[in-house]
Amino acid sequence: MNLQTKVSTFEFQVEAQCSKTGARAGTFYTPHGKVHTPRFMPVGTLANVKTVTPDQLQACQAEMILANTYHLHLQPGEDLVAEAGGLHRFMHWQGPILTDSGGFQVFSLSEIRSIADEGVTFRSPRDGQIVALTPEKSIQIQNQLGADVIMAFDECAPYPATREQISQASDRTTRWLERCVKAHDRSDRQALFGIVQGGTFLDLRQQSARELVAFDLPGYAIGGVSVGEPPELIAKIVQATTPLLPVHKPRYLMGVGTHREMSQAVAAGVDLFDCVIPTRLARHGAAIVGSERWNLKNAKYKRDFTPIDPNCSCYACSNFSRAYISHLLRAQEILAYTLISIHNITELVRFSDRMRQAILGDYFYEEFGHFLAQEQAGN
Q: Among 234, 281, 236, 280, which Cα is nearest to 254's?
């Protein structure tokens, strides 16, 4: 069996499990390479991870990255990306790519015109045009973009919301998934993941999970978190939902990326994560060091000639000082954002790999247990 035949099945292999928690280490095979889990995935919304080149991303040891259906549909359009040969060729990234369905962005960024069983209409924030997005259209766009993993179109309800609102959104998400499955015509080359909804109501989460598992998809995501609810509720949602998802399929928690959130999710059995915080923090001058965030614009770094993190071997930490990056930030030089982004991405990827190594060696709880206590504050 050649490699292409093997990875086209989107096989997920669990290689080790923690003896004290639900944490597991595995490998997810895709047409564009392996993803070693647990794994943090940088976000490249518009077919680029902000301020970072693909070569730099690779040096950060990123394996799988994200792009967004909503944003790419509005600019430059899926037809142009397809004409360029698909996302991988368009953005010159040879590794695996996942595209979000656009559901979260539709409900959080747009002026919604209507929500119905058929789909959603909204006003484009770019040119004011009215745009219609249905489950079928979302899948069509993602088929043209050509990512390895594509997400089902879902209704992401806000926080807070009533039980009735959450129940309606969750039921609609299940009905939309059925339409997504029927519309998806590249299942041999693109894995369709379903998204569990249900807000903060654990019984609705469990109901959504059971309904989605019945579709026997290549993988499953937990969505509708990090929308304003407190961190302790996110942890409860993940702990209640993850065990209901198949053990032989990858589990993806959408939109989280702090050390504490990832540790708690991994302990519950989650495999994949994404978050915009590495580059977003960088654009505000903040570096992730351990589980802390340091504002390098602060005066105390002006004459600090040590690396951002002496224990980090990334390009930024190997070659530049806090003082230099602090100077770049004050001068509003773009290089500052690039260097901090490189460090932040490396830190979160490295942290997820540390968890993987700890699971393989069965010392996950001993090394990361301090993140699992709900009452502790911070990252």
A: 234
Domains and CATH numbers, the chain: 10-275 (3.20.20.105)
Catalytic residues: 100, 274
Range 137-147 average pLDDT: 98
Alpha helices in the chain (DSSP H): 3-7, 54-59, 69-74, 78-83, 87-91, 103-109, 135-145, 163-183, 202-213, 231-241, 259-268, 277-282, 315-319, 322-330, 334-360, 364-368
104 contacts: CB under 8 Å, gap ≥ 6: 156, 223, 254, 255
Model confidence at 376, pLDDT cuts 50, 70, 90, reads very low
What's the pLDDT score for residue 136?
98
pLDDT tens digits along 76-106? 999 999 999 999 999 999 999 999 998 888 7
Query: For 194, phi and psi rounded to 5 degrees?
Result: -90, 160
Q: Distance (Å, rounded) from C-alpha 78 to C-alpha 70?
A: 10
